[in-house]
Amino acid sequence: MRKKLVAVGISLGLVMGVVGATSANALSLYEHDNYRGSVYSAWPSNYVGNAMNDRASSARSWGDAPTYWEDRDKTGRWFKEAGNIEYLGNYRINFFEDWNDRISSFGYP
C-alpha cells in the first residue's frame, strides 16, 4: 500500500510539473523567417549568445509577452510582442530600420 501511495505521489508530482511547465515563459529565436534555420531556445536571457546575437529573423514565445532588446543586458531599443513572429522584419523601429537580425537579449519585465 505504501509503495502505491509513493508511486501515485510521484506521478502526481510529474503531472503537476508538466502542467506548470506549459504556463512558464519561454522563447525560441530562429535564424530565418517562418521558424527555419538554427534555433536558440531559453527562458529570459541577458544575452542570446554569439551564435544567435543579431541573427534572429523569427520567434515563438509561450506565456507572457516577452520584451526584445537590441543590446545585451536588456538595454537599447526594445519592443514587446506576444505569441509567434513569422518575420521580425515586419516590426519597424523607424522608417529605415526593422527588427530583423537585431535582437541581443529578451525578458519578461
Secondary structure elements and pairings:
Elements lengths: L1 H21 L3 E7 L3 E7 L15 E5 L4 E5 L3 E6 L24 E3 L2
Antiparallel strand pairs: 1-2, 1-3, 4-5, 4-6
Brief summary:
With 109 residues, the protein is of the alpha+beta class. The protein has one helix spanning 2-22; strands at 26-32, 36-42, 58-62, 67-71, 75-80, 105-107.
Q: How would you describe the overall organization of this protein?
A:
The chain has one domain: Crystallins (Gamma-B Crystallin, domain 1). The strands form 2 sheets. It has a 3-stranded antiparallel beta sheet with strand order 2-1-3, with no helix packed on it. The protein has a 3-stranded antiparallel beta sheet with strand order 5-4-6, with no helix packed on it. It has one helix at 2-22, and strands at 26-32, 36-42, 58-62, 67-71, 75-80, 105-107. With 109 residues, it is an alpha+beta fold.
